[in-house]
């Protein structure tokens, strides 16, 4: 099954860059990168040392509901191209040895029993396995250590 790695929507990234409120109603914080592990959730690449970036609360779900997790993310403060690699594993997912993959239903709720810490080299296989299951609409990739949202994987 062809996979599609999806970044945060470009229109939402543009809103945050205009300093519109984040998921908590706060103005995104502006910082300068030291180049140490600040993955942009729009281009899905690390933010280079010296580049300005935003820290903000992000909720990758369309509506509030009990499973709509919100957490901190990084975003280039200046416009960047949305990740367009499609089926290629984004570079931000090569900076750790493993990630948490978890399946969600079409109702945007966690499908119990799908969460597993997955080695980087097994991300495609695990995502394919999850997306082959009935009732799973998409997969979130999250930090295995801090549960921070990285990106979404869908069927192509």
TrEMBL record:
A single Pfam family it belongs to is DUF1203
Protein name as it appears in the record: DUF1203 domain-containing protein
Please give the organism: Pararhizobium polonicum
